[in-house]
Amino acid sequence: MKAFTLKSKLFYSIKNYNKKTFMSDLMAGIIVGIVALPLAIAFGIASGVTPEKGIITAIVAGLVISVFGGSKVQIGGPTGAFIIIIYGIIQKYGIEGLTIATLMAGLFLVLFGLLRLGTIIKYIPYPIVVGFTSGIAVTIFTTQIKDLFGLSLPSNPSDFIEKWGVYLQNFNTIDIWCALIGVASIAIIAITPKFSKKIPGSLVAIILMTIVAMLLKNFAGISSIETIGDRFAISNVLPKAQIPDMNWDTVKSLVSPAITIAILGAIESLLSATVADGVTGDHHDSNTELVAQGLANIASPLFGGIPATGAIARTMTNINNGGKTPVAGIIHAIVLLLIFLFLMPFAKYIPMACLAGVLVVVSYGMCGWRSFMALMKNPKSDVTVLLITFFLTIIFDLTVAIEVGLIIACLLFMKRMAETTDVKAITDDEIDLNKEFDFLATNLDHYTIPKDVEVYEINGPYFFGAGNKFEEVMATFGDRPKVRIIRMRKVPFVDSTGIHNLTNLCLMSKKEGIQIVLSGVNEKVNAQLERARFYDLLGKENICDHISKALKRAEEITKEKNK
C-alpha cells in the first residue's frame, strides 16, 4: 500500500496566490461568516447545547477544515444532520459523553482517510442517503413545533409519535405572538433572495424579528415571547482546551454513536465537496478531506464544540460569492470569531420562535422531497431501502436507520448479483460459434456435442446462489451422462463460495460416475482455482481454455468409459 500523503488544498492554492484572488476570498469569507452565524446559533440550541457552542464549532472546525481539507471551497461547521444524533447522545450520556463521542468520531474519520476509504464511502447507496436525510429533516421540523408556536407543554417526549401526540393535545396553548414571529421569520427567509442574493434571509429575519420582539416586550407589554436570554446564559469568553475524563466502559458504550457521527460526517462532507466540484470544475481529494474532517472533530470538542462536517449550503454560498481558495474558509472563521467576541451579548435578545423558523426552513431544504418522490418510481428494492431508512430515522434513531439500511442494501445487492448469474443447459446437438462470437478463431462453424455428454454454461460471476441453480438445470436432462462440460467463458471471477459450490458439484458427479470438464476458463479464474487446489480434485487436463478442447477431452473420456 502506498504511503498516505496529506494533500491540503490550502498549500497548493497559496503557491500562485495574488491580490485579486485574496479580494474574492475576502468578500466570500465575510458573507459566509455572516450566513453561518444564525445557523450556528440555531444548530447549537436545537442540538441541546448553548448557542455559543454552535459558534465555537463553526470557528474551530471551520478553520481546521479549511487549513487541512482536500477541497478548495469547502466550508465546515455544525449542520442540521447532526442535531438529532447530538440531542440523543446528550440525553443519554450528557455533555461529557458527547465530547468523548465526537473525539472518537474524529479519530474514526482520520482512520477512514488514512485507509483510503474516501472513495468507498461515496458508494453508499443513494436511497439510504435520501432516506436518512429526509428522516432527519422531518425530525428537525418536529422538534421546532413547540418554539415555533410557543406551546406550553406538560412534557416534551423525545419519541417522534409521542411528541406529536403531546403537540396535538396541547395545541390550544399556542401563543399568537410567538406564532406570528415564527411564521414571519419563515416568510422573510423565503422572500429575501428575491431582493438580494448576497444578504442571507436568516440574518434579515433574526435582525427584524429581534427588533420586533424587543418593541413588543418593552412598549406593548408582551412578555410571553421567549428569547435566547430567557433560556440560556450567554457568554463571549473563549473556552480553554480541556481533555475529558475517559474510561473504558464509557468508550465502549459510545462506539456506536461515534461511528454514526463519523459515517454521517464523511457522507455529508464528501457529498458537499462533490457538489462543489460540479460547480467549480475542480477535483477534491476525498481521503485528505476525511483526515481534515477528523482533525476538526478532534479539535472542536476540546474547546466545548459539537460535531462538524462540510456544509453544502455554506459551501455553495462561498462559491456563489467568489470564494476561490481555502483562504475564504479561514476568513469565515475569523469573522465568526470577531462576532463572537464583540457581538455575542446581543444574541440573548433573539426570539426562540425566530430560530425555530430558521430551522424549519433548513429542514425543508434538507428533506429533498423531489429526490424522495423520484426514488419512489424506482425498482421496489430501492423503494424498500428508502422507506425503511426513512421511517427508522424518524421513529427510532439515525444509528439504527443507517445500520439496518446498509444491511438491507447489501442483502438486496447480493440478491441482484446472484440473479445476474445464469446457469443454462445447451440442449441443441451442436454449438454454433458463429452465433456466439467466440473469442478463439477457428475454421469450424460449429461443434457437435458427443453422445453421453451434457453441456452447461454459466453467465456472470460464479459465487453465492449460482451453485444451487445447477440442480434445477440438470433436471432438464433425463439420462445420466458420462461427462458434464461447464462453459465458464462468461465468468469474470469466482469467489470462495463459488469454488465451494463447484467442488460439491464435482464430488456429487464423481459419486455418480460423471466426469466434470471446465471450458473457457480465463486466466484470473484459472489462477483462483489453482490457488484453491481445485486441480487436485478435477485434474489439470480437465480444465480447458476453449470449448473445442473441452469437447475433445469429453470424447476421450467417453471412449475410455465405453471400453
Describe the protein's architecture and organization:
With about 575 residues, the chain is of the alpha/beta class. The chain folds into 2 domains: about 20-370, no CATH class; about 420-560, STAS domain (Transcription Regulator spoIIAA). The chain has 26 helices and 8 strands. It has helices spanning about 10-15, 20-45, 50-70, 85-115, 120, 125-145, 145-150, 160-170, 175-195, 200-220, 230, 250-255, 255-280, 285-300, 310-320, 325-345, 350-365, 370-375, 380-395, 400-420, 435, 465-475, 495-510, 525-530, 535-540, 545-560; strands at about 75, 310, 420-425, 430, 445-450, 455-460, 485-490, 515-520. The strands form 3 sheets. It has a 4-stranded mixed beta sheet with strand order 3-6-7-8, with helices on both faces. Strands 1-2 form a two-stranded antiparallel sheet. Strands 4-5 form a two-stranded antiparallel sheet. The chain is elongated and about 115 Å long. The two termini are about 55 Å apart.
Characteristic key phrases:
single chain, 563 residues, alpha/beta, Transcription Regulator spoIIAA, 2 domains, two-stranded antiparallel sheet
Number of strands: 8
Cα distance spanning the termini? 57 Å
The amount of helix comes to 55-70%
**What structural class do helix, strand and pairing data support?**
alpha/beta
Low-confidence stretches: 437-444
Strand content: 5-15%
* Largest sheet geometry: 4 strands, mixed
Lateral arrangement of strands in the main beta sheet: 3-6-7-8
- The mean pLDDT is 87
Q: What's the total helix number?
A: 26
- What's the Cα radius of gyration? 31 Å
Shape: elongated
Number of domains: 2
